[in-house]
Amino acid sequence: FITAPFLYVPTFYLSTGVMQGSTVTESWLKCQSKWTETMKAYLCIWPATLSVAFSVIPVQHRVVYIACVAFVEKAIFSAISNDSIEP
């Protein structure tokens, strides 16, 4: 609840923006406009995922399980970030 809103989500937007050729300022503005929606997705994904990982998934399979969920999470974040429909 501390790392995600202040480090993880901004780092996602800044790094992907710069890799896509945007400036840091453009990436930061996109982060600000999409932050709430991205955090809602984050909070829908990770608490349940970690609860299942540490209560149901056997120890030897946890890394693979979390990596698969992280892959899906990045796809969702990318869809949110690339949703450029302007009102």
Question: Could you give the distance between the termini?
Answer: 31 Å
Low-confidence stretches: none
Total helical segments:
3
| SS content category | mainly alpha
What proportion of the residues form beta strands (DSSP E)? under 5%
The shape, in one word, is elongated
Main beta sheet strand tally, sense and closure:
none
Proportion of residues in helical segments: over 70%
Question: Keywords, please?
Answer:
mainly alpha, single chain, 87 residues
Protein described:
It is built from three helices and no strands. The mean pLDDT is 93. Helix 1 packs across helix 2 and helix 2 (24-55) runs antiparallel to helix 3 (62-82). It has 87 residues and is an all-alpha fold.
Give a quick rundown of the structure.
It contains three helices and no strands. It has 87 residues and is mainly alpha-helical. Helix 1 packs across helix 2 and helix 2 packs antiparallel against helix 3.
